[in-house]
Amino acid sequence: MTGTLTMGAARLVDPHPAINDSLRLFTRVRSGTIRLVEGLTEEQAAYRPTSDAWSVSQILDHLLLTEALYRTQMKRLIELAREGKRSNIDVTLSEVDLSLPFIPKALMPAMALPLTMMNMFVPQSLRETVLRFPIMKAKNPKISEPAPAKPLAVLREQLAASLGETEALFVGALPAKTGRVTVSHPVFGRNTIANIFGLMAAHEERHGTQIAGVLRQPGFPKGVRF
Q: Can you give the pTM of this predicted structure?
């Protein structure tokens, strides 16, 4: 069946329960995303409520690009744990150029240090809440900007395949320090791999709500979904 997921985390033999649990959480959220778009036609997936709104296909593409970005960071963290030389990777605003609505984009580089200091006191639960709900409408990084249109059938397959690539990072023995190495970003703060999965899950839940909103639009193309 298209979009069928295999839970690689269930095969983990390494003692990293926080990573295992957070990966399982993300897998459940991804399963929900796939179920949400089952039965959609290409016309429905391409529908945009307004000229500046994303279609369902664009939202899915954005989720895939975001997962790929996080997966790259997690690969770097596993290598960092294997080397055992450092415990943190700094990611700059030039690498991941997320912008905030109350700060002009031109001023974001100057805000890197203040944001980093502020994030030292922001709990993980609050970061996830801000991502999960549209409390603050930040501008996504360029690296996660979706293409104008991609075939829905391809995107469905990629949703499962991309998760498989992420799961594959954690199958088998991992370096002992894998659960303790961190990646830091001025906006996202300092996060372990388990924290990253929490942010990924919260981000995908937010866009799942966005997809559900598109499906309820009065102008949404008619058709049988199931």
A: 0.86
